Amino acid sequence: MTDPRHPVREWRTPFVEHRTPLTTDTPGIGVGRANGSCGELMQGVLDGDRHFLVTLPIQRGSVAVFEPGGDDITVVPGHKSKARRLASVMVARSRVLRGGRLTVRSELPEGKGLASSTADLVATARAVADAEGRTVGLTELEADLRAIEPSDGVMYPGTVAYFHREVRLHTRLGALPPLTIVTGDEGGVVDTVEFNRTEPSFGPGHQREYAGLLDELGVAIVRGDVTAIGAVATRSAVLSAAFRHRPHLDSTIREARALGAVGVVVAHSGTTTGILLSENDRDYRTKLAAAEQLCASFGCAVSVHHTRRPVRGHRLPHERLPSRELPA
């Protein structure tokens, strides 16, 4: 078992990819990770009333460690009941596991629209599979998540369009250019499951607009066009205000345009509104400070996130930690 005085060091550091060789001296202990999403670049409904979102992957996320042992599943912290449910399902069909201790640590606040629940679950699935000596497949993972709750598409690398209520992939859109998101939190929490039980009225006109925006966004991501990416995100934020009150949205959009930001993004089923900045902007530092000041002026808790940038040829963040970073 892990010595509680010596937790995995990665939990205390920013959520980043490990770029060292895949080795472990502690077989049987499984480790999994998943990144979060800072709200969504867009979210809406397509033809056939299919609800979808586009992920905005960030570097922060969740880490899970599964330590086999005993006949029961215990989880730390104890309120992570969905993670316990998923681990129990996977262990029940496992040929090598009977029980164990699952520890989940996350840099993502709950109920804010940062995909914290999905990140916890994806990290959990990867940790349990890792304990079995295998990698969990996307088909298996999505089937398990589908039985628990609507889910974001953070199990995929890069940005994706995702049918979150169906827990199915729509389209892989590729990697985003380097972006910073300065967010203000309006307070409170949103229960994602309850939010997705609501049925906002989307007519054919809305569905056509969302389809057009998704096409525009796909082209913009391929081209690395930050201006077009920001324009789509801002339009989706405006459309979302018809279904969920956002007290600072109009002011944020107005001031973001004045300071020359790329655009505005929201957590469509959360409490955060963010200002998108290009990290390649020559005035980036000045705009970053201005965006932080703007969000703080609304009396909001301010956070700064950076888009996750996978590097070709390096290990994905759900793969095993190198031996020196495994629990003692």
Automatic annotation (TrEMBL):
Residues 91-146 form the GHMP kinase N-terminal domain. SUPFAM superfamilies: Ribosomal protein S5 domain 2-like. Keywords: Kinase, Transferase. One of its GO terms (molecular function) is kinase activity. The keyword Kinase applies. Residues 220-282 form the GHMP kinase C-terminal domain. This is Threonine kinase.
